[in-house]
Amino acid sequence: MFDTIKKSAKKKLRSLIRAFRGKREEEKEFSKRIKYRHAAFWEPADAETVRNTNMDASDAPEKWKDVENWQRKLSNKHNSREFARMHDCRVPELYWRGRDCSQIDFGSLPAQYVIRPTIGHSCNSVFLMDNGMNLMDGQTYSNAQITKTLNKALSKNRHMQFLMEEFVRTEKSEYKIPDDYKFYMFNGKLSFVQVINRLNVKEGFTSFYDKEWNLLENINSIYKQAADLQEKPKCFDEMYDFAVNLSKSYEIFVRVDFYATDKGAVFGEFTPTPGLGAAFTSFGDKLLVDHWDKFCKGMV
Fold first, then answer.
1. What domains appear along the chain, each with residue ranges and CATH number?
2. Are strands 162-166 and 112-117 parallel, antiparallel or unpaired?
3. CB 291 within 8 A of CB 189
4. Which of 72, 123, 133, 300 is the most buried (most CB within 10 A)?
5. What does pTM read for this prediction?
6. pLDDT digit string (tens) for 193-243?
7. Which residues of 123-151 are buried (b: 16+ CB within 10 A; e: fewer)?
């Protein structure tokens, strides 16, 4: 009986191994390329030094591009603001930047403002403050509570700083969690635009569009698909032109994020490894890989 149980256990183990290998073999090409890029960007010893080199909009292009995989500098959200400014893009007003949170003059801030880290992803440590309430989690925070939360995050990463910025309003002049317009770009060429109607830090709805604002089939399954066709932003053409210009300078594949506001298109950030390449559908994978091979062939 013991031998029978042992054989059964081995059989189950072999099945699990085959299943695991099958999943590995099924990994999509775009995911493989993004994971390769992630390793090329962040495994070298100089990774954090490069990312956190302070840059300015007045710096010459040669200074921006003075290291291998220089695009790593743009994963620092302050540097990305400066790069966008250098290319005449609109960015939110900057109220404060730093690590010493005791220097924040909360009394000088407007009733609505945004806090975000210079390093990070997935809206972690982001505050969209509206009269004391963080719209990202629906909780009310005192200035002391905000400072404590920021200091805790800073204690875990000596490179991180925080930006306190303008809370940009929607095209209808509302203060709400803004919709994200994410342009998947290949050296100046658009693959598609992803719209995210964010409800909070983790939840939201999404849909995908081409340059003519035709609805595309599902490309990524991280968020639920929006039930309705999204209204094309009034400043869409401006966002598109900014995305093309920034992408040509960025050179390799990148996702460029914008907000549609009552002031026009406002730059958000660059994302070089969206979702680490996960959750893209077969349709999305083919679309992205085709554009990569056509417009960024051989690039990281």
1. 29-47+169-295 (3.30.470.20)
2. antiparallel
3. yes
4. 72
5. 0.90
6. 999 999 988 899 999 999 999 999 999 999 999 988 999 999 999 999 999
7. bebbbbbeeeebbbeeeebeeeebeebbe
